[in-house]
Design goal:
Belongs to the carbohydrate kinase PfkB family. This protein is α/β, with parallel strands linked by helices. The chain has 11 helices and 13 strands. Helix 8 runs antiparallel to helix 9.
Length: 366
């Protein structure tokens, strides 16, 4: 296990898990077999969250493993260019960086086909953990994909234990990707096995329906019965453009509206939401006990989630704080000038940085 030399930041959020390459079809509504061209974009839910936090101005680090290949090096470079601490990232000489091919419907919804058996993120070993970095975390965030197989599962559990002992808040977004699991039953059992370790949990309405053993997923009392426990500080159920429902120890069943935008790609929308939520909690933990502050935070998170669906690719579409605040300021929740040009400018900036990386890589090879 390594010790980080990073300077201490009292608001540091460490995200643990997978980072991979998403291949997104240029034309929505076409099958993978019929797609001729793809847009390559960095992805992986925990990495998306890490970048979302950094783009909002927060202190963010990512911890995981990528292949010692062109894609892995590109991903680490993207982390750095987005302001994310990458000291917790390891390279694997044998396993390659994971890939995901994303099928987009015409409405921007997506399905995934993964190439990762095994991929480098699955081979993350406990001795490779950067304990110093974990010990600095104010919030330690993770999903469930890193629990699917060994050795990463044991590494994930060890990292959670270290973070908890160091006093960090544990943040959990299951981010269900059923095709990656051996079975639906295994997914449900494993996801719930660490449920009561978390302080903050975000789930989608679809995940609530999948994980609930008994009861009606639309009823508050059944949600509380299935998912609430005494030491939990915040449970958020997201319902896309319909908004979110939140539960804390002192106030349960509150709602915050969502935003309806024309969707291009919904990949990473939940991660943009989570990034804004964790950024706000790290900045002001008292919002977990102040309903008005929490509502404002969830409004910001919903705006970030909505804005992230207006471009292809998870990380390139993540908004900056100024963009999100301007969007919220439009009382009707629509996108107006000069917001659209700014979003396009952000996308062009990402494409430029990717082109520069590829150029430098080719030059270094000759």
């Amino acid at each position: 296990m390594t010790i980080s030399s990073t300077n201490f930041n009292p608001r540091l959020i460490v995200s643990f898990g997978e980072m991979l390459i998403d291949f997104v079809p240029e034309i929505a509504g076409v099958s993978l077999a019929d797609t001729r061209t793809f847009v390559k974009a960095a992805g992986g839910a925990p990495a998306n969250v890490a970048c979302a936090i950094a783009k909002l101005g927060g202190a963010s680090a990512f911890m995981g493993k990528v292949g010692n290949d062109e894609f892995g090096k590109m991903l680490v470079d993207i982390l750095k260019k987005n302001g994310v601490n990458s000291e917790g990232v390891c390279f694997d000489d044998d396993a390659r960086t994971g890939l995901a091919f994303v099928t987009l419907t015409k409405s921007g919804e997506r399905e995934f086909m993964f190439y990762r058996n095994p991929s480098a993120d699955m081979m993350f070993k406990e001795y490779e953990l950067n304990i110093g970095l974990i010990n600095q975390a104010k919030i330690f965030h993770y999903g469930s994909i890193s629990l699917i197989s060994e050795p990463c599962r044991s590494t994930h559990l060890a990292a959670m234990k270290i973070a908890k002992q160091a006093g960090a808040l544990l943040s959990y977004d299951p981010n269900l990707r059923l095709p990656l699991w051996p079975s639906a039953a295994n997914a449900k059992e494993t996801i719930m096995s660490i449920w009561k370790e978390a302080d903050i949990i975000k789930v989608s309405d679809n995940e609530v329906e999948f994980l609930m053993e008994n009861g009606d997923p639309s009823k508050e009392e059944d949600i509380l019965k299935s998912f609430w426990f005494d030491s939990l500080k915040l449970l958020v159920v997201t319902c896309g453009q319909k908004g979110v429902t939140y539960y804390t120890k002192n106030f349960k069943g509150g709602k915050v509206k969502g935003y309806a935008l024309k969707k291009v790609d919904t990949t990473g929308a939940g991660d943009a939401f989570m990034g804004a939520l964790l950024f706000s909690i790290a900045k002001d933990p008292s919002l977990l006990e102040d309903e008005e502050k929490l509502k404002k935070t969830l409004t910001l998170a919903s705006a970030c989630g909505a804005l992230s669906t207006t471009q292809k690719g998870a990380i390139p579409s993540l908004p900056k704080m100024s963009t999100a605040l301007e969007f919220i300021a439009n009382s009707d929740g629509t996108m107006k000038e000069p917001l659209l040009p700014r979003l396009l400018s952000n996308a062009c900036g990402w494409l430029k940085s990717t082109k520069e990386w590829l150029t430098s890589f080719v030059v270094s090879k000759h």
